[in-house]
Amino acid sequence: MIALKPEERSSFGAIDVTSYPVVHGESGGPHLAYRIEAQGRVIAYSADTEWTEALVPLARDADLFIAEAYTYDKPVKNHLSLAALEARLADIRPKRLILTIWGMTCWDG
After folding, report:
1. Could you tell me which residues come within 8 angstroms of residue 32 by beta carbon, excluding any fewer than 6 positions away?
2. Checking DSSP bridges between strand 41-46 and strand 64-68, what pairing results, if any?
3. Cα separation, 78 vs 97, whole angstroms
């Protein structure tokens, strides 16, 4: 096992991974999201988290951003709403966005 330090890039052969801290309660952790760079492409992945400013550098200009959207606009502790994400999409600017909801996946086409 390799421990990744938040906001520090680690290389695994031709793949670079940077982890970012996210917010998902007090139990367990650390809770991390990942920015994966390989062959000139970027995938950003964040599972359960409340809105946190770390999502901006995590997914900025990513080719693909995979994020949870637990509700449309109702705040739920430890989870992201689509409305909170939409409010910051202009700062994040992912080329594609896939939303995961309760184990289901939706995509923008």
Report:
1. 4, 6, 19, 20, 21, 22
2. parallel
3. 20
Contact by Cβ (8 Å): 35, 22: no
pLDDT in tens, 31-42: 899 999 999 999
Q: pTM of the entire structure? A: 0.86
The yes-or-no verdict on residue 13 having pLDDT over 70 is: yes
In whole angstroms, what is the distance from residue 16 CA to residue 105 CA? Answer: 25
Q: Give 4's DSSP letter.
A: P
- Cα atoms found within 13 Å of the Cα of residue 18, Cβ hemisphere only: 17
Asked if residue 19 lies in contact with residue 45, where contact means CB atoms within 8 angstroms, the answer is no
- Fold classified for 9-76+85-107: Metallo-beta-lactamase; Chain A (3.60.15)
Residue ranges of domains in the chain: 9-76+85-107
Q: Using CA atoms in the order 42, 101, 2, 57, what is the torsion angle rounded to 10 degrees?
A: 40
Q: Enter the DSSP assignment of 3.
A: P
